[in-house]
Structures are given as structure tokens and as C-alpha cells.
């Protein structure tokens, strides 16, 4: 849910002397497009300005030509020019790095998103590992000698299923009863995906809280709810208590700034 969606571009970038020199080169427009594509790719990789397929595989000229939909010779020309102007650095292992990336980008925000994605992947691995252990236990357990254990497992699974059903039913019921779209099945499923694919401690409570805010502001749309959820994740507000404390802090700051409480 928290893939990086933007990078910063300086509005005076075309006044930079390096850019002006590039504009005098053959295929200048294409070189500049490749420069912007490299910046966007660095944001997508979200590794402090490095660009790579994964941590062990750097991009080759041919791979970048495919990704950027440009001739490989044009890509090589652009990389050569950008490297000579010091706008990129290519290390001895062929990994490309955008120079001064930390100077121009919101590195703290990018790091927060990276850590949240890491936490979600860790939770996913833990769920998969638990399933593997459960499956392995079934394979090695004798049906005749462990019938009580099998019954306990069934009961445990049923409790988990009932709990999961309760989590989803509360959200769906709130959705249906508060005008978010009774027949919008796709919207419901997308919202329910936050139950497993988020960093919240009790996601079902957080989701309903976001829906309550959407109702209060008469914004009964999925993108509005998800915007609230993304903002809370970006601010590391992962429990109802975190959100409540943040609201109190916001109100105090508002009163201190203009002497009037506008609410939150």
C-alpha cells in the first residue's frame, strides 16, 4: 500500500548550467527525458538514489533501453553525458547512483515508507511460515493416534475463521449502512485488503475510524478513506491511541497559532 508515488523536481532545473549544456547536444530532448526517467526509477527503487533491478543485479544499458523504450545507443549516450556532468555515478559493480539524491529528496519520508514495506513483507513471510509449519504438522501426524489434536486444530481454525469473519463483517456492515455503495463489491474488497496489507496494530478498528471520518465530512468514497489510511501510515499513527494523541496535538497547535479551535 505504501509504494513511493512521487519524487521532487526543482522548478529551476532548466536554469542549471549542466542542463543548458545538455540542451545543446544531439538528441538533447531524449537525453533529458532519460534523465527524468532515471530520477523516477530511483524513486521507485527507493534506495537512497541507487537504481537497480534488485540488490544483486544492476541495470544494464539494454535493460534500461527496454524499460525506457529508447534505442540502446541513445541510452548509452545519455548515461555517458550524465556521468561526465557528474549527475550520476556508476560504481565498479555497474550500479547507477543519482548524485546529491539526499539533498533534493524527502529522504526521511522515503525511509519511513521503506521500513513500512519491510514490515509488511516480514508479516507476510511470518504468515507463510506459519502455514508451512501447519501443513508440515498435518503431514507427519498420524490420523488414528492424533484424532484429539486434529479436533483441536479444527476448532482453532474455526475460531480464527470466525474472528476473521467478524473483522470483515463489521467493516462491510458499516460500509453498507452508511451509503458507501451497497453493490460496490470491488470497493469493499479493496478496503478489506488493508486488514492484512497494512502496518496498523488493529486494522479493523482503524479502517472503521477512517470510514467514520469520511461520513463526518460527507466524503463517502474509497479513495478518500484510503487517503486517510495512507496519511496515518506515513505519520506512523498505527493505533487508535496514536491517532487520538495526534488529533489532540493538532488542536493545541491550531489554538496556539490563531487562538481558535477549528476542530479535527
From TrEMBL:
Region (Disordered): 115-166
Basic and acidic residues bias (residue ranges): 125-146, 154-166
Ranges annotated as biased composition (Basic residues): 115-124
InterPro entries attached to this UniProt entry: DnaB/C_C, DnaD, DnaD-like_sf, Phage_rep_org__N
Listed SUPFAM superfamilies: DnaD domain-like
Phage replisome organiser N-terminal domain: residues covered: 6-126
Domain (DnaB/C C-terminal) ranges: 188-245
Superkingdom to which the source organism belongs: Bacteria
Family note: Belongs to the DnaB/DnaD family.
PANTHER family: HYPOTHETICAL PHAGE PROTEIN, PHAGE REPLICATION PROTEIN-RELATED
Protein name (Swiss-Prot/TrEMBL): DnaD domain protein
